[in-house]
Amino acid sequence: MNQARRATAADAAELVRLRGVLMTQLAGHRSADGSWKETAEAMLRERLAEPDPTLVAFVVDRPDLVDRAGSPDRAGLLAACAVGTVEHRLPGPGNPSGEVGYVFNVVTDPAHRRRGYSRNCMAALLDWYRDRGIQTIDLRASSEGEPLYRSLGFTLSRDPAMRLRLRPPQQSPS
Question: How do strand 137-139 and strand 99-108 relate by DSSP bridges?
């Protein structure tokens, strides 16, 4: 009943809700600006519907809404998810294809934690990468998520992550 399945465009709103749960957890407070949600949902609907996607999500339906036959009674209500993309980088000796997987948005609804749902979503996502021939997969782990990722074979890389946030260009008065 806690089997991960591949998300569809119909899951976009719930994937955005779970992203909000994660962002609140990471920031320690709820964001006042919800304008990102509409953009994220539209992007997910489009990208999850692509015939050969470079963005996929694996989800576990809320167990209290799955009937005895294993079908969701109310589709779209999710307990957990893991989202991943395929990035195309310049090939090199360690990665001749240049394709790299990137995992993000791994989150379980607080009411459904500690049941293996994120592990099931991650295992399904890693199988998807394996089937595509992706051999390098990156992610950034929270301290809470690190034990899960280590148990799946992830190790700390030697490359420290850095970030620069550019400001949009100033608009000149007309």
Answer: parallel
Residue in the structure block whose two tokens are 């609804």: 109
Q: Name residue, tokens 């240049």.
A: 98
d(CA 87, CA 157): 18
In 3D space, the residue among 172, 115, 170 whose CA is nearest the CA of residue 148 turns out to be 115
Residue-wise pLDDT for 62-76, tens only, equals 987 654 445 544 555
Pairing, β 99-108 against β 5-6: unpaired
**137's tokens:** 């997969």
128-139 residue pLDDT tens: 999 999 999 999
Amino acid letter, residue 73: D
pTM, two decimals, is 0.86
Question: What SS3 class is residue 107?
Answer: strand
| Distance from C-alpha of 98 to C-alpha of 86, rounded to nearest angstrom | 10
Using DSSP, state whether 101 is helix, strand or coil: strand
